[in-house]
């Protein structure tokens, strides 16, 4: 299975605090544990030609992981349309943290994807609310994150097809932190944690969730549905 | 409650067969029964300035009904964005029949909204699959349509939040014909029947569904959620 | 519209602390504000004959509100079956707080309905996660309860058809606190708050939710679906 | 992975027409293709001691397949409770055809599970409505069954967590034919086809669906959630 990890890769170049946590970029940290988990993993970043997401790359990608934040606006509409089409055609998509405001996530959701936020480094606790779900396999009843950015409800997304994690924040907020959506033949998993100044993606249970999700949103092997004018399958007379 | 019925109003001008069925336009036929049901109903059409959907009109609209087909592409992006925002802010939206391919519906869904179709005038039978739902109130176990265009699965929409009707077609297809979606603070109802060459909107149980739906998708009275940077509600120390 | 408020009415007789909060019983406190809201409201309690839920009473009940805790086991199977059938036939049901462990709720859910709990009087904050839902109408972005019993995930219920409130607790837990379920022709609303030692049901926004819910789960007027052997609606030849 | 196929195994003994189709019983026909697909498959039938479903057998069963019809009432409450608990603890359950009226399915659903039916041997066509779902992998856009019993809506089940197939019947009915439900830690798949007088379970795409489903409802490896009284995870002062 081929996974491509996409990252805008800007914070890590411009901000010493971020560079200290993710010296090779968030994408490399994520690619490392996905590779170890047995996925054939590549990376792509905003400043590469076509943001690293050429037709060829996408065609060979089973699951795309997306991390973006400060440069959502720099992602070209053409590439967004290309990724959108690939998701509808079956490619899995894992949207992480601030990717909630990415063009691709907003286009797939049809809503503002807005939320409350606060950078206070408070602790976050994710509770499993769908205990039989494959994405929660091997996860305890909570995931404890010592320091994270807060995201709070209302999170302006469509009702998730499956809700797997709910977050508790010390400052008094809650959040739907692990959500599955079906769009076309594609499956999407949104996972909240992962602020650029915290070592969240080095934590083993966070990695486990992303690995589980990559398996879960993998494309199903089926011909694309046929649309358009259709002959009757039964006699109309 | 204020309802605005929007229609592209083209078939009825250009096609004698359609004019014969809806001489004043589909919008007037729909507005008639909504008026009778007690809604303050207005109409708007594609060829009016701003397609009849000025900021003022939308501001005063609780529920917008949408019928379009041959001229989806002529609806300006600006007006689509305006309607989109109003739906997210709470305005109800009822999308009828070929409106499945309207820009506003596709933007709200995030998918292609494609489907199978056939104009053979075969009979359609809608079955109620959510018998306690207010939109099915007063409806028998089926709605029988003697002649309709066929729409068949796969219908490329997100999983509906509520599924109320399933259609059977003589030619062998099925379709999810009555679907509720929440987007932002707004509620959307997609209802399949209503091809322009058939007198579907004069049928009393079809009218009843649209009347019920107008009540159901009416805005809830609440302040808009607050988004953005948030102070903690509890001490972080 | 006829509402019946059922209460086991034991704590209020046996426990001075509870009596101090609800001197006439929780059912009377709830009936009071429902009456004021315009519902024709009656009460019924465990120690009445047939627990106050005779065939006649149920037949005339549009929405049944249920509060129970220490005496779930004393509710007879026969009455549970009677209420169950009425819900499937369309009667609305609002299950409050510790009613999660009532026989009727467990039978309708098919799961254990178990959860975490703690009586520490900590504060609870309910967040609205479905901002356009009629049950949240008139409610701010949170409901703040100064002292409540904690209920925490995992809450062993089926996936709710609609999720409206999520609770945050000071001690670190979250909970799906406002859930709609469809069963048969009936609609069910589970609402978490309302421990017997706290004046929760005197709080106006809590009352507002229960009033909204009574409207929402009210029966739809439709004939019961026909089941069993069916003649074909189309020729089979 | 261990699969147990349970069958009441009565029609095949008493009815020559059924015996002609399934000479060794429906369970053996199903076990055959599951074995070939690589599952360690056993069978169990009603007339064995404890219906073949001892504590030991269930403990070692990852996925239980259930076919029953004429003898639902002979299944003991004790065994139903045992299976129910195992499902809540994570065992997958695939309920086939007339199993819709089994005690175990009704207990898990909380509804009557009633439906319309007709034994006319008409043709059935299942349409895939969730094209990216693993249970539909390798399946064309329809499954065509030349002769089947008709099951028609309204099917009195809770709203499925995932809806994968819709059936069309020549006689004019539709049906939600492939439904996933989560209950506790367990996953359940209901699949409509499989009347005892038709060779449905020998058809390769029907087999493919059941094989896919066995993978899909397999237990996730996680500790059981902890319920009951809970110490705070955060300071309450």
TrEMBL record, chains A, B, C, D:
InterPro entries: Class_I_gatase-like, ThuA-like, Trehalose_catabolism_ThuA_prok
Pfam families per the UniProt record, alphabetical: ThuA
Domain of life, source organism: Bacteria
Domain ThuA-like: 2-217
Transmembrane regions: none
Protein name: Trehalose utilization protein ThuA
């Amino acid at each position: 299975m081929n996974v491509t990890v996409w990252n805008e890769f800007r914070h890590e170049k411009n901000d010493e605090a971020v560079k200290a946590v993710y010296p090779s970029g968030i994408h490399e940290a994520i690619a490392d544990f996905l590779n170890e988990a047995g996925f054939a993993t590549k990376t792509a970043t905003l400043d590469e030609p076509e943001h690293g997401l050429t037709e060829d790359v996408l065609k060979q990608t089973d699951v795309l992981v997306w991390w973006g934040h400060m440069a959502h606006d720099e992602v070209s509409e053409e590439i967004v349309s290309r990724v959108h089409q690939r998701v509808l055609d079956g490619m899995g998509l894992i949207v992480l943290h601030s990717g909630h405001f990415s063009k691709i996530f907003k286009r797939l959701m049809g809503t503002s994807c807005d939320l409350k936020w606060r950078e206070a480094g408070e602790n976050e606790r994710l509770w499993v609310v769908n205990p039989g779900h494959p994405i929660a396999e091997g996860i305890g009843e909570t995931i404890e994150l010592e320091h994270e950015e807060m995201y709070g409800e209302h999170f302006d997304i469509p009702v998730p097809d499956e809700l797997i994690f709910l977050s508790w924040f010390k400052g008094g907020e809650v959040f739907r932190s692990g959500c599955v959506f079906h769009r076309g033949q594609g499956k999407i998993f949104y996972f909240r944690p992962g602020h650029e100044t915290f070592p969240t993606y080095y934590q083993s249970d966070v990695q486990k969730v992303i690995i589980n999700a990559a398996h879960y949103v993998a494309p199903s092997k089926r011909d694309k549905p046929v649309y358009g004018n259709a002959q009757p399958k039964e006699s109309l007379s």
